[in-house]
Design a protein that fits this description.
The structure holds two protein chains of two kinds.
Chain A: H1 3-6, H2 11-23, E1 40-41, H3 45-70, H4 102-130, H5 142-153, H6 168-192, H7 198-203, H8 207-234, H9 238-244, E2 247-248, H10 254-257, H11 268-271, H12 274-286
Antiparallel strand pairs in A: 1-2
Chain B: H1 3-13, H2 27-36, H3 39-46, H4 51-69, H5 78-96, H6 128-131, E1 136-140, E2 146-148, H7 150-155, E3 159-166, E4 172-181, H8 182-189, E5 197-202, E6 208-212, H9 213-216, E7 222-227, E8 230-231, E9 241-243, E10 256-262
The chains are: A mainly alpha, B alpha+beta.
């Protein structure tokens, strides 16, 4: 890929990437390099389908779960107290709930759970068999890379760190999300069948604690998902297309665009790197 | 690049203009123009709606349809799917059930914090003056239908168990119960092979709940007459009630009067209103 090809969208972008690539080793060769206008499938259709099915099922599960929680919005055993939940007895606002009433929410919860579990199993089996897990498992150096990403987002570092399919922060959250989801599913089973699967309930510390871990891990996954959605819109909106049609143009990757959150919404002049602005200032003086 | 220019370039490239135009475009120029086009721009020029437009339009209409079909209870059309899921869940739940899986309560006894519950407007109390002495009627598909007084029940082999009570609402409460196993009653009356379900009826309005035989004969399913060392007071289902940790609270009939062994299930007070019929734990 040449610098002119990367900077075709606008002169300022061209200047910036030209100046920054001069300091950096060239980007890795991808299938798009020879045909700059053609995008290749970034996510396999199985990943795309399971992603959206899981997302839909998860929304239903959270809404109906909160409705169920509202039937007894505390964790204490009857006749006891609970140490570790500051909002004992406070109901979840109605607009966050789904299912209408306890039985309706339970019916939704126990139907959508199969969609959630089956898509999760299909997804994990697929990325294991197909090799995509290599993009997600933590490696030595990920902590340093995550630190570099943070520095970049906090304007401490000027250039986007080099990355593979995902940056180190993404990698970490995409690796953690299935683990949290597995905890949610297992603690959910422990609540659903506290006698026939009593050993599982015991693993979570009994019925009360299984409910608590189910709730806490749900909150964690919701927060991760919210950050994920926020970052998709703020940093890499092109990835929405890659999760629908599979297409992704590497020219638009956050690394190629040197994108911080909401970079694409900023006025053009503010996107220019310091180096580009400095060189322009020199040119202006020369004139 | 404007639509117009795209069209003109495409037309030119296909030689449409060449016959009419005095100055026919030179081939190199056309090729150059064609090369600068992106494939999607060409398709946009040819068809009115490309894949991206199609996808965004379908996404919008799908979202609108979903929103229109939704209320807080979800679309009514989903009812069939939910019923199907409930039937499938029951298959899994019955497959999971083992008579060896027993509940061992953790935590301290709830005592008076144990919620009391009935569906009648006032506390149901068995009035011996008008109804005669209370008796538990065990009937249905049995060899020897029998009626047990409270004394008869106490004389049968007693089971004492400290177990959880799991409520559908999400709470659990620990109590110590004394009672007779339903499996013991079934043995005494001689349940026939065709009996697959058991209905537990009460004198609390029309409350009843039917169970599968496997759950009803679980070793921890008892007709309880005492709680925490005292005979049941009226708020907790006196004179006797069904109790088992392997079913949710609403399946455990209080103010028990009849145990009927049946070939078919006949629903129940809460099951008929939308709660799962199986309601197992």
């Amino acid at each position: 890929m040449t610098d002119t090809a990367r900077g075709e969208d606008g002169g300022t972008l061209g200047e910036e990437t030209a100046s920054s690539t001069a300091l950096r080793p060239p980007l890795p060769k991808t299938a798009t390099d020879d045909k700059p206008h053609k995008s290749n499938a970034r996510h396999h259709w199985i990943v795309r389908v399971t992603h959206w099915a899981f997302a839909g099922a998860f929304v239903i599960m959270v809404g109906s779960g909160l409705q169920i929680f509202n039937a007894y919005p505390r964790f204490a055993l009857k006749g006891g107290t609970f140490c570790c939940y500051p909002f004992e007895g406070k109901s979840i606002p109605g607009w966050l709930t789904f299912g209408g009433w306890l039985a309706g929410a339970r019916n939704w919860h126990f139907a959508a759970m199969w969609v959630l579990v089956l898509t999760g199993i299909v997804y994990l089996s697929f990325i294991y068999l197909h090799g995509e897990w290599r993009d997600l498992v933590p490696r030595r150096g990920d902590i340093r890379d995550a630190w570099e990403m943070l520095k970049f987002y906090l304007f401490v570092r000027r250039d986007h760190p080099r990355q593979g399919k995902h940056n180190a922060l993404q990698k970490t959250s995409y690796f953690v999300m299935p683990i949290v989801a597995a905890i949610i599913v297992l603690s959910g089973l422990a609540i659903w069948k506290p006698v026939t699967l009593g050993w599982l309930t015991a693993v979570f510390g009994g019925y009360v604690w299984a409910r608590y871990w189910h709730f806490v891990s749900m909150i964690i996954l919701v927060l991760l998902a919210l950050v994920h959605v926020f970052m998709v819109f703020a940093v890499d909106p092109y990835s929405i297309r890659s999760m629908i049609t599979g297409g992704y143009n590497e020219r638009n990757s956050p690394e190629a665009r040197n994108a911080r959150p909401f970079y694409h919404l900023l006025p053009r002049w503010s996107r220019r790197s310091r180096a580009a602005r400095a060189s322009q200032a020199v040119e202006a003086e020369g004139l | 690049m404007s639509q117009l220019r795209v069209l003109r370039v495409v037309e030119r490239a296909h030689g449409i203009l060449s016959s009419r135009d005095a100055d026919a475009p030179d081939v190199a120029q056309v090729n150059e123009a064609h090369r600068s086009l992106r494939p999607e721009e060409v398709s946009k020029a040819v068809s009115a709606c490309d894949r991206r437009d199609f996808l965004s339009m379908s996404a919008c209409s799908l979202a609108t349809a979903l929103l229109a079909a939704c209320n807080s209870r979800g679309p009514d059309e989903a009812e069939k799917v939910l019923r199907f899921a409930e039937r499938q869940n029951e298959v899994v739940e019955r497959w999971l059930l083992r008579h060896t899986a027993m509940n061992h309560a953790r935590g301290r006894i709830a005592g008076s914090a144990f919620p009391m519950y009935f569906i009648s407007k006032t506390l149901p109390v068995w009035d011996t003056a008008t109804r005669g002495p209370w008796m538990l009627d065990v009937s249905g598909l049995v060899d020897r239908p029998m009626r047990f007084t409270l004394e008869d029940l106490v004389r049968l082999p007693a089971r004492r168990q400290r177990v959880d009570h799991f409520c559908v609402e999400g709470w659990n409460a620990v109590a110590e119960w004394w009672g007779v196993r339903v499996s013991e009653l079934a043995r005494v009356v001689g349940v026939r092979a065709e009996a697959k379900y058991v209905d537990f009826r009460s004198f609390d309005s029309n409350f009843h709940e039917s169970w599968d035989l496997e759950s009803a004969t679980h070793p921890q399913t008892i007709v309880a007459y005492a709680k925490d060392g005292k005979f049941l007071p009226p708020p907790y289902g006196a004179p006797a009630r069904l109790h088992s940790p392997i079913k949710l609270g609403y399946k455990n009939t209080k103010y028990l009067t009849n145990v009927v062994f049946m070939a078919k299930r006949n629903g129940g007070y809460w099951s008929d209103q939308g709660y799962e019929w199986y309601g197992g734990t």
